[in-house]
Design goal:
The complex is a heterodimer.
Chain A: E1 2-6, E2 13-15, E3 20-22, H1 25-34, H2 46-54, H3 59-70, H4 75-84, H5 91-105, H6 109-122, H7 126-136, H8 141-153, H9 157-171, H10 174-187, H11 202-221, H12 225-232, H13 236-254
Antiparallel strand pairs in A: 2-3
Helix pairs in contact in A: 2-3, 4-5, 6-7, 6-8, 7-8, 8-9, 9-10, 11-13
Chain B: E1 2-7, E2 11-16, E3 22-26, E4 29-32, E5 37-40, H1 41-46, E6 53-56, H2 59-64, E7 68-71, E8 74-77, H3 78-90, E9 98-103, H4 108-122, E10 128-132, H5 133-142, E11 152-158, E12 163-172, E13 178-187, H6 198-215, E14 221-227, H7 238-245, E15 249-252, H8 256-270, E16 277-280, E17 287-295, E18 298-305, E19 318-323, E20 328-335, E21 340-347, E22 361-370, E23 373-382, E24 393-399
Parallel strand pairs in B: 1-9, 9-10, 11-14, 13-16, 14-15
Antiparallel strand pairs in B: 1-2, 2-3, 4-5, 4-6, 7-8, 11-12, 12-13, 17-18, 17-20, 19-22, 20-21, 22-23, 23-24
Classes of the chains: A mainly alpha, B alpha+beta.
Chain lengths: 258, 400
C-alpha cells in the first residue's frame, strides 16, 4: 500500500511536550498515536489549528478542530478526529488507539510518569525524560535507573554515577554498582566508587575494568549499543538477567581481543 | 512595452507588440578592453579588432556546447555570455512590461541558459517567458479569426541551420476537451550559403519541394506560412511555391517568430488562454503520469504529471509518499493523443528496510530533461524526527 501525502511542507510545527518538530499531518498523527502519553489538554492550541489550516493546507480539519476547541470538546475526541483525517490511520487502528488511550488514562500516576519518561527517552529527548523520572525517582527504582541513564546519555557522567550509586544503596545490585563505576571512570573520578561501597575487592574491579574495555571495543565496533540501552528500558529483574548474559557474551567474544 | 524575441543560431530578432518593424541583432558579443564596454549584434562586429577588441560571433555554438571564451584575461562561460548578451539587448528597450523569448530548439540546454539570463535581469518570472517557436505559432493563430484555422495551417521555417515544418492539428476528445497539437518535422541541415549561386538555388527549391511533399498530408489546408531568411528572396523557390499555392493560401513573413513571440507576450499579459483547450507542443508534456495510492483509506488514481504542462518549467514536481509493504511503486503513463498506456515500476532503494508502522516516507520526483524523457527518482526521507533518512535514492530513466 502506498499513501499519497502530496507536496512537501517545509514549515515545521514545534511540539513543546516532546521538544520536536513535525512537518506533515502524518507525522502529527504518528506522534499522537505513539506518544499520546505526552499529550495533555494544552496540546490543542489555536496555533496548532492555524498550522493545520495554513501550512498543512487542511482547512476542513482545521475548521472542525476550531469548533471542537471552542466547545471544549473531550481531548480523546479531538485526537481521534485528527487521526481520522490524517490520511494515515485506518478505522481499526483508530479504535485501537481509543482503547490504548483509555488504558493509559487508567494508569496509576507513578506508572504514567515512568512511561512518559520512557517515551521521551525513546525520542532521545533526555532533558525532558529527566524531568519526568525526577518526579518519581525517590520512590521508584526503575525511574532512578533511567534517570541515571538519561544523564549518561547527555554525558553528565558524574550525575549518572551518583544516581546509580544511590540505586546501589537501595538494591545492593553489583551490576548497578558496576554501571556507576563505569560512569565515574568516564568522568575521570573513578575513586569516588568507594563512597558507595568501601569494601569492593580488587579482583572485582579488575573484572569490571575488563568489561569496560570490552564494552568500548564493542561500542566502537557495532550498533549493539542500542541493544544495551534497550535492556535498561525493561524491568529491573530483566536488567539483571540481560546484563549478566550480555556481559558473559561480551567476555567470550572479546577475551582474546588486544 | 510588450516585447517578443526570437532566437536562432545567428540572430536574435526583436519585435514590439503593435509595431510591424523587427530589429535584428547578430548573435555576437564583443568587449572593448580599453573602455571595458560590452557590445552586442552589429555593434560588436563593427568594433575595431585591431584595437584589442574581442568579438565572439559564435555565441550560439558556445551555448550549445556549454563552452567558454576568454576575453582579455578572463574566461567567460556560456551562461555568463548569454546573460551579458541579453542584458545588453534588453537595455535597448525601455519600460518593458513583458518579454517572451522563443527558440526553435526544445532543448533544456538552450531554454535553461536563456531563462537564467532573463532571470538575472528581471529577478521575477512574472516578467518574462522563455519557450519554443511552436508556442509562438499557436499565439499567431489565436490572434486570427477562427475561420483562419478551421482547417489545417502549417508553416515552413528556413533559417541558416534548419528547415523546419510546423503544423497545427486540432482534435476534440469524447469528453469535449479540445486539443491543439503542433507537430514539427525537421529537415537535415540546409545551409543558406547554397542560395549564393544558381545551381544551389535550384537544389534548394527541389529540397523544399520534396520536403513539402513529405510533410503535407492529403487534407485541407487553409494557410501555409513561410518564415525565415531562407524565404526572403522569393525568386528561387518556384516549384515549391507552385505546389504549396495549389494547396492553400500562402503568406510570407521572414520575421514571423519574433512578431508571434510579441503576440504570445500579449496573450500572457492579457491572460488570453482558453481553459477548454489543451495545448500540446514541443514545449509541453505529452502524457499523464498517474499512480494508485491510498487517500483517506480509499484507493485512488492520482495524476502527478498532467499533459500540456511546460516540461522545462516543472519545478515543484516532487511528491511525498509513504510506502507500507511493497518494494516498488507502479506508475501509469498515458500519452494523451495516442491514448497509449505504459506501466513503469520504480524500486525502493535497496538499503532501505521497510518498517511496520508506516514510517517509510519517500520523495517521488520527476525531472524532465527532454519533452519525452523524464528521470523518476525515489528518495528515502526517513520520517520527520522519528526516523532518520538512509539517504538512499533510486533513479529511473523513463522514455515517454
Amino acid at each position: 500500500m502506498v499513501i499519497y501525502c502530496g507536496k512537501s511542507n517545509n514549515n515545521p510545527y514545534y511540539i513543546k511536550e516532546a521538544d520536536l518538530n513535525i512537518k506533515s499531518i502524518q507525522e502529527l498523527a504518528y506522534f499522537i498515536y505513539n506518544y499520546a502519553i505526552l499529550i495533555s489538554n494544552s496540546f490543542i492550541t489555536k496555533n496548532l489549528i492555524l498550522y493545520i489550516d495554513s501550512s498543512l493546507k487542511l482547512p476542513r480539519l482545521a475548521s472542525d478542530l476550531n469548533e471542537m476547541f471552542n466547545k471544549k470538546a473531550n481531548l480523546t475526541d479531538i485526537l481521534t478526529h485528527i487521526l481520522a483525517n490524517s490520511n494515515f490511520y485506518n478505522d481499526e487502528e483508530i479504535s485501537q488507539f481509543r482503547m490504548k488511550l483509555l488504558k493509559l488514562l487508567s494508569l496509576p500516576e507513578e506508572e504514567y510518569i515512568l512511561r512518559a519518561g520512557d517515551k521521551l527517552f525513546q525520542l532521545k529527548k533526555y532533558e525532558k525524560a529527566i524531568s519526568q523520572y525526577s518526579k518519581i525517582s525517590k520512590k521508584n527504582d526503575l525511574a532512578l535507573l533511567r534517570l541515571a541513564f538519561s544523564y549518561a546519555k547527555l554525558q553528565f557522567y558524574e550525575n549518572a554515577a551518583n544516581y546509580l550509586g544511590e540505586l546501589y544503596r537501595r538494591t545492593r545490585s553489583l551490576d548497578i554498582l558496576k554501571e556507576a563505576y563505569f560512569c565515574f571512570k568516564l568522568n575521570g573520578t573513578v575513586d569516588r566508587i568507594y563512597e558507595f561501597d568501601e569494601h569492593i575487592n580488587e579482583s572485582l574491579l579488575a573484572d569490571w575494568e575488563y568489561d569496560i574495555v570490552s564494552r568500548i571495543i564493542k561500542v566502537r565496533k557495532s550498533d549493539e549499543m542500542k541493544e544495551f540501552e534497550d535492556i535498561f528500558l525493561m524491568g529491573s529483574s530483566y536488567i539483571k538477567e540481560s546484563v549478566s548474559s550480555l556481559i558473559k557474551i561480551w567476555k567470550e567474544k572479546y577475551r582474546f581481543v588486544d | 512595452m510588450i516585447l517578443g524575441l526570437s532566437v536562432d543560431e545567428n540572430f536574435v530578432y526583436a519585435s514590439v507588440q503593435g509595431d510591424n518593424k523587427v530589429m535584428s541583432f547578430p548573435f555576437a558579443i564583443g568587449r572593448n578592453l580599453t573602455s571595458n564596454t560590452w557590445f552586442i549584434g552589429d555593434e560588436a562586429r563593427s568594433e575595431d579588432i585591431d584595437n584589442v577588441d574581442i568579438v565572439i560571433d559564435k555565441l550560439f555554438y558556445i551555448m550549445s556546447n556549454d563552452g567558454s571564451a576568454k576575453i582579455g584575461e578572463t574566461p567567460y562561460d556560456a551562461k555568463e555570455l548569454t546573460r551579458i548578451f541579453f542584458s545588453n539587448l534588453i537595455a535597448k528597450f525601455t519600460d518593458i512590461e513583458y518579454v517572451t523569448v522563443v527558440i526553435r530548439q526544445s532543448s533544456i540546454k538552450y531554454l535553461e541558459k536563456i531563462k537564467q539570463a532573463m532571470m538575472s535581469l528581471f529577478k521575477d518570472e512574472s516578467k518574462f517567458k522563455v519557450t519554443t517557436y511552436s508556442e509562438a505559432f499557436v499565439s499567431y493563430l489565436k490572434s486570427k479569426d477562427p475561420s483562419f484555422y478551421s482547417n489545417l495551417v502549417s508553416l515552413f521555417d528556413f533559417t541558416e541551420k534548419a528547415l523546419t515544418y510546423y503544423e497545427l492539428v486540432r482534435y476534440v476528445d469524447d469528453s469535449g476537451l479540445e486539443y491543439w497539437k503542433v507537430n514539427t518535422e525537421e529537415h537535415l541541415a540546409l545551409p543558406l550559403d547554397l542560395l549564393s549561386g544558381d545551381a544551389g538555388k535550384k537544389v534548394c527549391d527541389k529540397i523544399l519541394y520534396d520536403f513539402a511533399k513529405r510533410c503535407i498530408k492529403e487534407e485541407t489546408y487553409n494557410h501555409i506560412i513561410l518564415s525565415g531568411l531562407g524565404f526572403e528572396d522569393s525568386s528561387y523557390y518556384r516549384e515549391f511555391m507552385t505546389y504549396i499555392c495549389s494547396i492553400a493560401n500562402v503568406e510570407t513573413d521572414v520575421h514571423f517568430f519574433a512578431k508571434s513571440a510579441a503576440l504570445l507576450s500579449n496573450d500572457i499579459v492579457t491572460n488570453n488562454f482558453d481553459k477548454n483547450v489543451l495545448l500540446i507542443t514541443d514545449a509541453r508534456t505529452t502524457a499523464s503520469i498517474k499512480f494508485i495510492a491510498t487517500v483517506n483509506q480509499v484507493n485512488t488514481k492520482i495524476e502527478l504529471i498532467k499533459p500540456g504542462e511546460e516540461w522545462f518549467n516543472l519545478k515543484d514536481n516532487y511528491f511525498d509518499v509513504i510506502v507500507e509493504d511493497e518494494r516498488v511503486i507502479k506508475l501509469e503513463i498515458i500519452k494523451v493523443i495516442e491514448r497509449v498506456l505504459k506501466e513503469v515500476s520504480i524500486a525502493i532503494p535497496e538499503n532501505v528496510e521497510l518498517r511496520k508502522d508506516k514510517t517509510n516516507l519517500f520523495e517521488l520526483g520527476f525531472n524532465f530533461s527532454e519533452q519525452n524523457l523524464v528521470y523518476v527518482s525515489l528518495s528515502d526521507k526517513g520520517f520527520g524526527e522519528f526516523y532518520e533518512s538512509s539517504k538512499g535514492t533510486t533513479t529511473k530513466r523513463v522514455d515517454i
